[in-house]
Design a protein that fits this description.
The complex is a heterotrimer of chains A (748), B (477) and C (216). Chain B contains 13 helices and 23 strands. In chain B, α1 runs parallel beside α2, α7 packs across α8 and α12 packs antiparallel against α13. Helices cover 21% and strands 38% of the residues of chain C. Chain C has four helices and 16 strands. In chain C, the strands form four sheets. Chain C has a four-stranded antiparallel beta sheet, with no helix packed on it. In chain C, strands 5-4-2-7 form a four-stranded antiparallel beta sheet, with no helix packed on it. The chains are: A alpha/beta (748), B alpha+beta (477), C alpha+beta (216).
Chain lengths: 748, 477, 216
């Protein structure tokens, strides 16, 4: 027997073990049938008793093909999870070799890389028009699983790996070449070493929200934050056996099953979660979070599926062409587009220049941003009356131009007038003092007579102003409970037990011995930080829903709404602080742990837009957030790029965006629209990070030190800019507005 | 809470929230009034005579060991288990802690705080507030600001004015005091003798205050040097309507750390000493000013108005101590209520605190003779009053009808706990006039036996010689 | 020179230490389900972040506070007579028989080998801020001190006094006092090892590590 023959037998054996792996014990009859046939064949082959070896081999291969096709029809979401994680799954190196015509790795080589799980290459695609060959460059960025090679860390990227990705996105932007990203990640590696998992992902998303080159992404395994780190694209393609999810099904099951300390959820529960989370390509296409599905061969693409690579090549070229064309104002645009979507078209023989003019880049960006901003509205429950919505829409149309006039024209000139008046006044003062000179010191400040002076020093002065009244407007209801409370730092600092009524009222929840901050209610901040009576909530009618119809979750949301009296975990309001108006989005840790879903994202985006329109500073006060609401699946994940885009637009319009973290802030929101703020502060005793200690332990096997997520570490790392005492939040905000916002607060 | 008319003193139980000498005196007062008590002690204090006293004179629930006198939770837990209806804080610890008083009266199982109501403690515990209250009533205070100053220009103007003011008053070396308004206990205070230094010192204090107290406000005052430290003893009942005074005290003899060592009542004695001012008039004015303020706030317990009197006889109100003081006995010793000479201000505080009316007016209070109080302390006056640590072997004195000694030092050997001030005993001496008082004082000190040794076997240090030396100077300006 | 073998033999005669767990303050005691003979463990984890076995709950002012076993061992006695009663501060609840660990044996032997600087008076002791910062920042056994150096702050009777080190120059090898706790006169504060003797100390530790068997 020749080598090729043996190789083909080996290949069948690989396919069989692959089937066994991805179905994890299911379809035992099919598996045993194949096993039996293969064993018989191999047995005969080794004894040379095959009559027509090649024909028999082909018929066995056909059997495999048949069974695979049949099994493919009954594939479950969890099977897909196993497919994308299988070592035989195609990986980025395969794609570089088979989809592109040539490439040079620029992000390191194999294990000699800042982070071998993030692969970056400059690749070329050669296209022809007639006899002329055109070489088109792209920047390829993606996670590399390396067929299970350990040093690739399963495509779980460390913070510096994502930083590397961002660096080369910037390079591509400078060079004006498209970026193709390939997402093969179960999620980012949740460690807080510099620059910090969350912080770096936030930077990446913020960067991609404004990249001035086309970005195409292809999703195979789209694990939450790790996927978003390179996933904000003009076109998002997804492989048919891929998954795109807020959390691994195992992680969801561990939460669902209330598993603690390394306990594993049952396989059944995991399957159920995979189903409920709606993680497949079809689901995501239906939601609108991806643009197209690329069909894979039965049971998923593997390295030898060369047809698939050809197809993938066509798809990424088409997607890039479409993005380029969509920015053109050319009358031939539509013809070109429809030509590219004809069946059997060969894009290799159709050339389109991938460079863009500056104005086309503007259109590209606007299109990308608008596309994301429009997403996921259907996943929230908007109970605003029709009239309100209509007025809101009208308001947009009427006031936006007026505001633009007011701020861009009138303000500018107003300042000039002020400057003129000021100067005139100064001159007048000088003139006045010159007039008075001959009359001696009589009229000036030193003229107070002696009695006045001594009486000022010995009799009651008038004292008005804020410092005199130092009482809280709102007290935590816990102050009514006659109970002693132990400070968590008692063992270290010897804090005596505090009396609840003192602690939760006068002390504002701060240990009088060590300064530890006990968590307070969101109302405490609303009422004590902003000017009394100045808080005006808006969009309170936008409610959290159950977009995935996740079993039982509708009731949980209702229970949370009843408990908190709020309709979602995000309250948005306008308020004044020391008479400066600002827009605040508050993420409340009391509403399902402050988890962030479509309704919260909707409100956050609207708040950013409102701040932008009215030229107010925008504050995200994070009372607490546990991350993206997993029961909303990708409806939640998509809020990461969405809200980041809203924030980026606001900042680029000249806005002042500040973030203040309190209690515990973790995962998605920190890794996107919160972490991207240039000015982030934290309240003392708060924790900030990407994943909690339990998740870190289960994903990395690492024990984390007790104070791993303390805000002071985030400060040392450079993630946040300062740590504030709760009792000083108001004063610090006033100062921050004055010093960071400057005299004109908004609009540089 | 039951109204006083329905309940007699005997239905109450007092938690003695203190240690040492004052704990003994509170317990003695309770015995005198027929009120049961519960005392506490820490492991450090197990040898203290106050523990012995509680065991000897208390009945059930007389004594509990607690982890700390500073932990309010311990006091509350003991009070609940022993059925106390009221808490006497003594002096120090929780005596002027309005939060503690508030907790005692506001918790689910309410008790009486034997001291002023918590609002009064809070009001008078705030120096700015006290100063403003005084000024609103025309009571003289130290010249300077009476509210925190946040503006540098304003601060500088006030400082200039304070300098000018002192020059007008004929003060040769004017001094200005800058202190963090939120501070206390000597932290964040500096004096300036030159206006040119002011700005830098001001900024230093302001930054310190912002860091330390999260409040940039500063007070700017005249720094009064050359003065006598006087006090007016006030007591009022729970009606808060008719406070009376128990005369004045002079507490000018103090250690370098501004700790009192020898107190005399009354505050001045013009029959023996000469003053550059009309001392009777000064004493009368500070008494009346103090009463005016006490009436204004509805003062409802014992308290002390602290004054400084300059060499020219100008009084300035310094602060109000809303507690019974160490030296209360010296005022009690010269006072007579309706002619009786067994005045006990602590018993009066407990009795009125529990709701009994005062039962007498200012006319019923008379004064007879002079008295002084020595504080016997294990310390080295020559060495900056450094506390001495060791064991007391013997503390003996000769009894005299004119002498009373209060001490927690037991007859047996006693090692001084290191947690607290090394006060050993208070001795109160009475005499019909100042010259005899000095003689009797010296007699007492000469007869006193105080011996001890430390770990190294060295004899103990004490302040007897210092007190002897100072006895000659009492009530001299 | 120290006879380590003798010392080890001596310790091996009674390799136990009795730990009395008593109440840190007043309150009502409720024991966890423990009994004499139960094995308990002390704080565990790389950073001792997981507390030891829960022995009892002490409730004061409606604030229940768990009391945990401080070390690994076997429960000797449980003072069940206090169950559900109000107790004073310092009331013994549980006695634990604790088999000495290697570190404890090391510490006992090191106390013989190191120069001990002792407390001159009963007081609370603190390192001066500079030394405290150095100790925090550097590896154990690398902070060098010399005779006459201001090393401690001695706090008693509301006064704080500097305390100067006297003894041979060397590194601070062991610290025997706890912040906020009183130290009796003559109790050792720190153990100092002259730098040239560090190898000897290392040898002591090696010996203990090879010769001392911890019971499993």
């Amino acid at each position: 027997m020749d080598n090729l023959f043996l190789k083909r037998i080996q290949s069948l054996s690989d396919r069989l073990s692959y089937i066994q792996d991805i179905f994890a014990g299911k379809h035992a009859d099919s598996v045993s049938l194949l096993q039996q046939k293969l064993d018989e064949f191999t047995d005969k082959a080794t004894h040379d008793s095959l009559e027509k070896p090649y024909e028999e081999l082909v018929s066995l291969e056909d059997l495999f093909k048949y069974v695979e096709a049949r099994l493919d029809a009954s594939i479950t979401p969890m099977d897909k999870v196993r497919i994308v994680r299988h070592p035989q799954r195609i990986c980025l190196k395969d794609i570089l070799e088979n989809v592109y015509d040539n490439f040079t790795e620029v992000g390191g080589q194999d294990e000699h890389s800042l982070d071998p799980s993030m692969l970056i290459a400059r690749a070329v695609i050669i296209r022809r028009r007639g006899k002329k060959r055109y070489i088109q460059s792209v920047m390829v960025i993606g996670q590399e699983k390396g067929h299970g090679a350990e040093f690739r860390n399963g495509g779980s990227v460390k913070p510096w790996g994502n930083a590397k990705a961002r660096q080369f996105m910037r390079v591509a932007e400078t060079e004006g070449i498209p970026i193709h990203t390939y997402i093969f990640t179960p999620g980012s590696y949740p460690i807080e070493d510099y620059p910090g998992a969350a912080q770096q992902i936030a930077r990446n998303i913020y960067c991609m929200a404004g990249l001035r080159v086309p970005v195409i992404s292809v999703i195979s395994e789209g694990g939450s934050g790790g996927a978003e780190a390179i996933g904000l694209a003009d076109r998002r393609l997804m492989l048919s056996d891929g998954y795109y999810s807020v959390i691994s099904p195992e992680g969801a099951a561990a939460i669902e099953g209330h598993c603690r300390g390394g306990e594993r959820p049952s396989q059944e529960l995991v399957e159920k979660c995979a189903m409920n989370l709606k993680i497949t390509a079809e689901d995501n296409l239906r939601f609108g979070y991806i643009d197209k599905i690329i069909q894979e061969p039965p049971l998923g693409a593997r390295s030898y599926h060369f047809d698939f690579f050809r197809q993938l090549r066509q798809e990424v070229i088409r997607a890039t062409d479409e993005v380029i064309l969509s920015t053109k104002l050319s009358p031939f645009k539509n013809i070109a587009l429809s030509r590219r979507n004809k069946p059997d078209v060969n894009l290799d023989e159709m050339y389109l220049r991938w460079g863009l003019s500056s104005s086309a880049k503007d259109r590209l960006l606007k299109k990308r941003q608008n596309k994301f901003l429009k997403l996921s509205k259907q996943a929230a429950v908007d109970r605003r009356p029709m009239l309100t919505k209509a007025i809101h829409a009208m308001d947009e149309i009427i006031t936006t131009p007026w505001m633009q006039f007011k701020y861009e024209f009138y303000r500018k000139h107003q300042r000039k007038i002020h400057a003129f008046l000021e100067e005139a006044e100064n001159e007048w003062d000088v003139f006045k003092s010159w007039l008075r000179k001959p009359f001696g010191k009589g009229g000036t400040g030193t003229g107070k007579n002696k009695e006045d002076k001594s009486s000022e020093l010995t009799t009651l002065s008038s004292w008005t102003g804020e410092h005199k009244h130092n009482k809280w407007n709102y007290l935590s209801p816990r102050y009514k409970i006659d109970q002693a409370v132990t400070c968590p730092n008692a063992a270290v600092y010897g804090c005596p037990d505090l009396w609840g009524p003192d602690l939760f009222a006068e002390f504002a929840g701060v240990c009088s011995n060590c300064g530890y901050h006990f968590p307070m209610e969101p109302e405490w901040y609303v009422r004590n930080v902003f000017d009394k009576g100045s808080v005006m909530e808006f969009n309170s009618e936008i409610e959290s829903g159950n977009p995935l119809e996740y079993p039982g979750f509708g009731d949980s949301i209702k229970a949370a709404q009843e408990k908190t009296g709020c309709k979602s975990g995000c309250m948005t309001f306008e308020a004044r602080i020391d008479n400066t108006k600002l827009v605040v989005a508050m993420l409340m840790g009391t509403f399902r742990g402050g988890s962030f879903g479509a309704a919260e994202g909707y409100k956050f985006v609207e708040a950013a837009q409102r701040a932008s329109k009215n030229r107010y500073p925008f504050l995200a006060y994070v009372h607490g957030t546990a991350g993206i609401r997993i029961q909303e699946g990708t409806n939640g994940v998509i809020q990461m790029p969405r809200c980041t885009i809203a924030v980026r637009r606001y900042i680029e319009n000249g806005g002042l965006y500040m973030v203040l973290y309190d209690t515990n802030s973790f995962a998605g929101p920190v890794a996107s629209f919160l972490g991207c703020s240039p000015y982030q502060f934290a309240v003392r005793s708060s924790n900030i990070g990407f994943a909690g200690p339990g998740v870190i332990k289960s994903t990395t096997g690492m024990d984390v030190p007790p104070k791993y997520h303390r805000c002071y570490r985030a400060l040392t790392r450079g993630h946040i800019q300062g740590v504030w005492d709760r009792r000083q939040i108001r004063n610090n905000l006033i100062q921050a507005l004055q010093t960071i916002g400057g005299r004109n607060l908004y609009y540089r | 809470m039951e109204t006083p008319s329905e309940t007699s003193l005997h239905d109450h139980r007092v938690l003695v929230g203190n240690r040492g000498e004052i704990a003994i005196r509170i317990m003695q007062a309770c015995c005198k009034l027929g009120i049961p008590f519960t005392a506490i002690y820490t492991p450090e204090d197990r040898e203290s005579a106050h523990v012995r006293f509680a065991l000897d004179h208390g009945k059930e629930h007389a004594l509990y060991r607690v982890s700390s006198y500073h932990d309010a939770n311990e006091l509350m837990a003991v009070a609940d288990i022993s059925g106390c209806t009221s808490v006497h804080p003594g002096y120090g610890f929780f005596a002027e802690d309005f939060r503690f008083a508030r907790r005692v009266t506001k918790r689910d199982r309410k008790m009486i705080f034997l001291g002023p109501s918590w609002k009064i403690i809070r009001e008078l515990g705030d120096k700015i507030n006290t100063k403003r209250l005084a000024r609103s009533l025309g009571v003289p205070t130290v010249p300077g600001s009476d509210r925190p100053i946040y503006d540098e220009m304003e601060a500088e103007n006030i400082a200039e004015d304070v300098f000018d003011f002192q020059l007008q008053q004929g003060i040769e070396h004017p001094l200005v005091l800058i202190k963090a308004s939120a501070g206390g206990g000597g932290m964040g205070i500096e004096e300036v003798d030159d206006i040119d230094q002011f700005r830098s010192v001001y900024r230093r204090i302001r930054n310190y205050a912002a860091r330390q107290f999260k409040d940039e406000g500063v007070l700017i005052e005249q720094r009064v040097t050359d003065f006598n430290h006087l006090e007016v003893q006030i007591i009022g009942d729970r009606s808060g309507k008719n406070p009376v005074h128990f005369g004045t005290r002079n507490c000018s003899i103090q250690s370098t750390g501004r700790q009192k060592r020898l107190e005399v009542a009354p505050g001045f004695d013009p029959t023996v000493n000469e003053y550059s001012f009309d001392s009777d008039k000064v004493l009368e004015s500070i008494v009346q000013y103090s009463l005016t303020m006490a009436r204004e706030v509805g003062y409802d317990s014992v308290g002390t108005w602290e004054w400084i009197v300059t060499r020219k006889g100008d009084p300035f109100l310094m602060e109000v101590n809303t507690r019974i003081q160490v030296e209360n006995g010296v005022s009690a010793r010269i006072a007579r209520i309706k002619g009786r000479d067994d005045v006990d201000l602590i018993a009066e505080q407990i009795r009125t605190g529990l709701g009994e009316p005062l039962g007498y007016t200012q006319e019923d209070i008379t004064f007879d003779g002079v008295a002084l109080e020595y504080r016997l302390i294990a310390e080295a006056p020559d060495n900056n009053f450094t506390p001495w640590v060791g064991t007391i072997d013997r503390l003996r004195w000769k009894e005299h009808p004119w002498l009373s000694v209060y001490t927690q030092v037991p007859k047996a050997a006693y090692s001084i706990p290191t947690e607290f001030d090394p006060n050993l005993a208070l001795a109160i001496v009475w005499a019909p006039n100042l010259n005899e008082l000095k003689e009797r004082g010296l007699t007492f000190l000469n007869e006193l036996v105080l011996q001890g040794h430390n770990a190294a076997g060295e004899p103990m240090e004490n302040n007897i010689a210092y007190l002897k030396e100072k006895t000659g100077q009492i009530l001299k300006f | 020179m120290l006879n380590i073998s003798d010392l080890l033999e001596q310790i091996k005669q009674t390799p136990y230490r009795e730990i009395v767990v008593s109440t840190p303050h007043t309150g009502v005691v409720n024991f966890a389900s423990i009994k004499s003979g139960d094995a308990v463990h002390g704080p565990e984890g790389q950073w001792k972040e997981r507390p030891g076995t829960k022995l009892a709950t002490l409730t004061r002012e409606r604030n229940p506070k768990p009391i945990f076993a401080p070390e690994k061992g076997v429960i000797d006695t449980v003072h069940m007579e206090y169950e559900n009663t109000f107790v004073e501060c310092g009331c013994p609840l549980v006695t634990i028989k604790h088999h000495l660990t290697r570190e404890e044996v090391e510490s006992i032997i090191l106390k013989q080998a190191l120069y001990l600087f002792r407390a001159p008076e009963r007081a609370k002791y603190y390192f001066t801020p500079e030394i405290a910062a150095k100790l925090r920042a550097s590896d154990p056994g690398s902070v060098v001190i010399h005779d006459g150096q201001e090393l401690f702050i001695m706090s008693r009777m509301k006064r704080e006094l500097p305390l100067y080190y006297s003894g041979p120059e060397g590194v601070i090898y062991a610290t025997y006092f706890k912040t906020n706790e009183n130290v009796d006169t003559d109790a050792p504060l720190i153990g100092v090892c002259p730098q040239e003797e560090l190898p000897n100390i290392k040898e002591v530790i090696m010996r203990v590590q090879t010769e001392w068997q911890e019971n499993a």
